[in-house]
Each structure stands twice: as structure tokens, then as C-alpha cells.
Design brief:
51% helix; Epoxide hydrolase; AB_hydrolase_fold; hydrolase; 10 helices; Rossmann fold; single chain; 227 residues; mainly alpha
Length: 227
């Protein structure tokens, strides 16, 4: 079995919305009796307006605002015109490679690179593997639609707005080049049963590709006591 998010890769193209770490969280809300635990990379939660922020929390919010100002075109295009960009990406492998490759490079931990003379942590083969998966399965448009269907809700969670609490056991891995970078106390408001929390010194948005050893170690450490 090769698991993938609905509308991405080998999964079907559903007619209803769903997304990523939010899928795991909502499973914990809607069917807690059948969920042993969820591991999130990272948990999505934001500060309370009354928080006296730590230095690390201030830095995390500043980085999120910086990304919003300088690198949000990708997200906004998917959110506001997913079909427009989707048709273009389904028509051009070169366009798809440029569109995806830029984010695969930009969102990885550059301190781990350069890989294959690229500025990020991923090799050319890793990038081409991801792009080829989307091209062969024709999922560029369906995956773009998830932003239009979900991102407003997810953004409210990240900025600290209320969300349904998740009471199942939770493990979390937080990587330094990831944005947003949730603090444990922010996460604890939404996830009151945190059993495992690890903040790493390397890795970005794609830890399964960048630092698989760290991610596997976290998964084993969290789920082992739940077996």
C-alpha cells in the first residue's frame, strides 16, 4: 500500500474537501474511538492573543509573516484560481517542474545542502521523482483545489482562532526550516494529550525526504507505547 492524501498522487480525485495534518486531526475529532494516536508534522495551532510570547514564538510568527509577504503567490493562486493554474500544469511538464521544483527547493532546509549543486536539501532525482508522480497521475489540478477548499480554515487555526480540540494521544515533530513552527504550549491548547514532542535541529517541510532517519525515529518513539 502507498498512502497519499486525497487528490494527490495515487489517490482518487474526491468531490469533497480534505487535507494533510488536518485530516489526522479531524479523524481524532470525528472518530476518536478508532484512533490510537496521531503524529503531526507539525501540529497546526497558533497563539492566544493574551500570550506573553517567548523569543522563539516571536521569531516563528515573524517568519510566517515574512513568508506571507514574500512567498505566498503559490498558495494564493491555488486558493483563488486552482482550475486556471491546474489546466496549465496538466498541459506542460516543464511548467509543472518549475512550479513544484521551486517549492521543493525553497521549503527544504538549506543548511543540509547544497544537494546536486541545488540550494536546498533535495537532490535532482528527489525533485524529479515528485514532479513525475504528479505528471503521470494527472493530479496537479486536483491537488491545487485543496487550497481553495481548505486553506481558509487551516489559516484560522494557525493564527490562533478556535478549532475543535483533539483528545486522542498526539505526537509531534517540529523541524527548524518549517513554516509555521508551532510552540508546544500553542499546540497543547488544541491537543491536550501530547505524549511525544520533538524539536529538531535540522529539516524543513519535507522531512521524509530530507531527514528520514529523524522522522522514523520519532514515529517509532511515539507509537511504540500505544501498541
Amino acid at each position: 500500500m502507498i498512502p497519499s492524501i486525497p487528490a494527490y498522487g495515487f489517490s482518487a480525485k474526491p468531490a469533497t474537501s480534505d487535507w494533510g495534518t488536518s485530516i489526522s486531526s479531524m479523524l481524532g475529532v470525528l472518530d476518536a474511538e478508532h484512533v490510537a494516536g496521531i503524529h503531526l508534522v507539525p501540529p497546526l495551532a497558533g497563539p492566544d492573543p493574551s500570550d506573553d510570547l517567548t523569543a522563539a514564538e516571536r521569531e516563528a510568527l515573524a517568519r510566517m509573516r515574512h513568508r506571507g509577504r514574500t512567498a505566498s503567490a503559490y498558495s494564493e493562486m491555488h486558493r483563488t484560481a486552482p482550475q486556471t493554474v491546474g489546466y496549465a500544469l496538466l498541459d506542460s511538464p516543464a511548467g509543472l517542474c518549475a512550479w513544484m521544483g521551486e517549492k521543493l527547493i525553497a521549503w527544504s532546509d538549506h543548511r543540509l545542502g547544497p544537494a546536486d549543486d541545488l540550494p536546498g536539501a533535495l537532490t535532482r532525482d528527489q525533485i524529479l521523482d515528485q514532479v513525475t508522480l504528479y505528471w503521470l497521475t494527472g493530479t496537479a489540478a486536483s491537488s491545487a483545489r485543496l487550497y481553495a477548499e481548505s486553506i481558509d480554515t487551516v489559516s484560522r487555526w494557525i493564527t490562533g482562532a478556535s478549532a475543535d480540540p483533539v483528545h486522542v494521544p498526539v505526537g509531534a515533530s517540529v523541524f527548524p526550516a518549517e513554516v509555521p513552527r508551532t510552540s508546544r504550549r500553542w499546540a497543547a491548547r488544541r491537543y491536550p494529550d501530547i505524549r511525544y514532542w520533538m524539536e529538531h535541529d535540522r529539516g524543513g517541510h519535507f522531512p521524509a525526504l530530507e531527514v528520514p532517519d529523524l522522522l522514523v525515529r520519532d514515529l517509532r518513539a511515539f507509537f511504540r507505547p500505544l501498541r
